[in-house]
Design brief:
By secondary structure, the chain is an alpha/beta fold. Helices cover about 40% and strands about 20% of the residues. Strand 2, helix 3 (about 50-60) and strand 3 (about 65) form a beta-alpha-beta unit. It starts with a helix and ends in a 6-residue tail after the last helix. Bound molecules: pyridoxal-5'-phosphate. The site of pyridoxal-5'-phosphate has 13 residues, from strand 8 and helix 10.
Length: about 220
């Protein structure tokens, strides 16, 4: 068994039955991805549209591709034909573009709204009230080619486990509130995308349904 597959299996053993693993393959080669693929793992995440488009074109068509990074409106059209889930939607403007491209492709595009939970202000995202504003907007309510499937967030990069736990917990509380208020008749609102290599165990304990793990599977990257 390849080392990559071994890492994936070890991680999967620690996940609860409600949590799926997205192998974050950014900066890694097609060969590395194919090692995981041949080991039976077919769910991958990329954070740059350009890299995602290229890999999708070169690799098997039964791979489930997740766009996990910040997405510019002008790039939506390139990923709309195939993307399984767009994780980091942080504006109504972007959501409108996703809806438009979804329509062109005759697809309902699944999205997560990104909540800002970290202390660092370099990370993108909305607060819970801003997310609610989007959900209440006339524009969103008329969208037919977008499905909001849950929320996504990134905790502060720190060794302080209590802080990380509090941030994930804040995300989960917002998720639970919104689900009760806006999605009681929409069971598709069910995903909480949280947890990376350094903090996924805490994220799972706090209710994550999608962990996004890169370096623990593929090794360190040269750049983010
Ligand atoms: C790179 C990245 C990850 C994975 O990070 P690792 O620390 O390598 O596990 C997860 N989520 C997002 C949005 C990323 O950009």
């Amino acid at each position: 068994m390849s080392q990559i597959t071994e890492q994936i299996q070890q991680i999967k053993e620690t996940l609860s039955e409600h949590t799926r693993l997205i192998a974050v393959s950014k900066t890694h080669t097609n060969e590395a991805i194919m090692e995981a693929y041949h080991g039976g793992h077919k769910v991958f995440g990329e954070n740059k549209a350009q890299e995602l488009i290229q890999k999708q074109a070169e690799l098997p068509t039964d791979i489930e591709w997740h766009m996990i990074g910040h997405l510019q409106s002008n790039k939506v059209k390139y990923i709309a034909p195939f993307v399984a889930l767009i994780h980091a939607v942080d504006s109504l403007k972007l959501l409108k573009m996703i809806n438009k491209e979804g329509k062109k492709n005759k697809r309902v595009l699944k999205c997560l709204l990104q909540m800002h939970i970290a202390q660092e202000d370099t990370k993108f995202g909305l607060n819970c009230a801003e997310i609610e504003e989007i959900l209440q907007s006339e524009a969103y309510q008329q969208m037919e080619n977008v499905e909001i499937a849950g929320l996504m967030g990134m905790a502060t990069y720190t060794d302080n486990e209590t802080q990380i736990r509090n941030e994930f917990s804040e995300l989960r509380q917002c998720f639970t509130q919104l689900r009760k208020k806006y999605f009681t008749d929409k069971p598709g609102f069910k995903e909480l995308s949280m947890g990376m290599s350094n903090d996924y165990q805490i994220a799972v304990e706090e209710g994550s349904t999608l962990v996004r793990i890169g370096s623990s599977i593929f090794g360190a990257r040269d750049y983010q």
